[in-house]
Amino acid sequence: MTSAGNDIVCLNATDITRTKQYRFYSKILSNTEKELYKENAFAAIPFENFVWLLWSVKESAFKYLQRNNPGLVFIPVKFIVQQLRVPGGFALTKYETTKTEGTGFDDNQVIQSIVTFGDATLYSMSLMHNDFIHSVVNNNEDFKNTCWGIKTIERNDPYYQSTAVRSFLLNRLNLHFRMDDLAIGKNLQGVPIVLKENEVLPIPVSLSHHGCFVAYSFISRF
Amino acid sequence: MTRIEILDELKKVFAPYTTNKEMLNSINDDTDLIRDLKINSANLVDIIIDAEAKYNIEIDYDSADKIINVGTCIDVIMEKLNQNK
């Protein structure tokens, strides 16, 4: 099953006070995940960032599975983060640029996790700054064929976000596949698809936007 | 409390999380929270918590599973209100 899933959380668009309320985070974190935060490895991560980190991992996993299971509904506590590995010496920093794109990840920079939903096991890579959290999932630990990108945008209205993220992804797809006539659409279930002259190409893509950030991921070989 | 009364109140619950005010004023049972109202998924938990506070109910995971559009949202609220009687 080849698919793609990513999610971006703009931390400035979240409500820190509400995130720290038990009533709120209990709808996102399972009991085992609440215990996970007590481990020393997370000392450099504020609790509200931890909550949104797990949210982004879970939402990415949901998007990954939804492509082949259109009836799936996102209930965060049903996606369980089993392991979370924070790089040694991890410190939160400000995002100093406006765009980052890559293929695969530098293990020393990313927070890695394993997330399960029922019988499905997925792997995630997450980048966290003071400004945002971006997660990408895959069905194995090898991300070398996973292309991803993050970009800041000037406005946060839904139409602008939607247009900006499609344009951002299309530029990368056209470069990567050496084409200039690709288009992004959605299938009947609302899952993003890549089109060439109205024909659906078998390239799994995932789009996300929140606040003044947009992001994508796709599989370059499958 | 009728479905129409809850629907009217839900417009106030959704209002902080959507910029699509035109669509908000004309919501019906089939209105999808994410696709039609353009509510970011990160705000769905806010909506559930706001609805819980407004109606003094608890929306558990299995009930939250059913909330896809305005109609199912009203169904869940009515079900929980009836359980509180």
List keywords for this structure.
heterodimer, A: 5 helices, 12 strands, globular, B: 85 residues, mainly alpha, 5 helices
- Output the helix-strand order of chain B: HHHHH
Largest sheet of chain A: 5 strands, antiparallel
Report the total helices of chain B. 5
Name the structural class of chain B: mainly alpha
Could you state the order of secondary-structure elements of chain A as H and E? EHHHHEEEEEEHEEEEE
- In round numbers, the mean pLDDT of chain B is 92
Portion in helices of chain B: 55-70%
How widely separated are the two ends of chain B?
Answer: 12 Å
Number of domains of chain B: 1
What is the C-alpha radius of gyration of chain A, as a whole number of Å?
17 Å
The fraction of residues in strands of chain A falls at 25-35%
Quick one: CATH class of chain B?
Answer: Mainly Alpha
List how many beta strands of chain B DSSP finds: 0
Assembly type: heterodimer
Rg of chain B (C-alpha, Å): 12 Å
Query: Which overall shape of chain A is indicated by the principal axes computed on the Cα atoms?
Result: globular
Describe this structure in words.
The complex is a heterodimer of chains A (222) and B (85). Chain A is an alpha+beta fold and 222 residues long. Chain A folds into two domains: 5-151; 155-205, no CATH class. In chain A, 24% of the residues lie in helices and 33% in strands. Chain A has five helices and twelve strands. Chain A has helices spanning 16-19, 22-25, 31-36, 47-66, 158-177, and strands at 5-10, 80-85, 99-103, 111-117, 120-128, 132-138, 146-152, 182-186, 192-196, 199-201, 205-210, 213-219. In chain A, strands 1-6-5-4-2 form a five-stranded antiparallel sheet. In chain A, strands 3-7-12-11 form a four-stranded antiparallel sheet, with helices on one face. Chain A has a three-stranded antiparallel sheet with strand order 8-9-10, covered by helices on one side. In chain A, a hairpin with a 3-residue loop joins strand 5 (120-128) and strand 6. Chain B is mainly alpha-helical. Helix content of chain B is 56%, strand content 0%. Chain B contains five helices and no strands. Chain B has helices spanning 3-14, 21-25, 44-55, 61-64, 70-84. Chain B is globular, with a radius of gyration of 12 Å. Chain B starts with a helix and ends with a helix. The A-B interface holds A 9, 13-15, 18, 23-24, 27-28, 52, 55, 59, 73-78, 157-158, 190, 210 and B 19-20, 35, 38, 40-42, 44-46, 48-49, 52, 61, 64-68.
